[in-house]
Amino acid sequence: MARVYVSAVMNASLQEAWAFLRDFGALGNYHPFFCNSFIEDGKPADQVGCVRRFEVREDGGYLREQLLALSDDEHRCRYRILHIDAPWRNYVAEMHLLPVTEGNRCFGEWWATFEVPPEEEAAAVERVAATFRTFFACVDEAQAAGR
Q1: pTM beyond 0.90
Q2: What PANTHER family does the annotation carry (predicted)?
């Protein structure tokens, strides 16, 4: 089973970073790897069970992910992949945000586990890790730009 863990301290407050994360349908609006994201069936983006669909900018493939848990109290969300144009199975990811005690920053951690053919594991782990790292960078860039 592949495992990925990425963490970062972001130059954004907990509330600012959480605003990005909790809008489950907005990924394609700010993440450079993805585009055309939306929540299927017009459901609210914070409704557990909702499904987001988005395209991979690089190859035009698409993903469908289902929100499994969302906690405003814990600043945490969990989701699973329903469809990906890759031989990955049982992908579940979780992200958690915590305040940093000094400054107007927060700590984010994001992890995932999934099954992937052994010969593709290293590339898949790096792809997921890059996605997570880029999310943290997007939050930093948005705050620096005043968005």
Answers
A1: yes
A2: BLL4707 PROTEIN, SRPBCC FAMILY PROTEIN
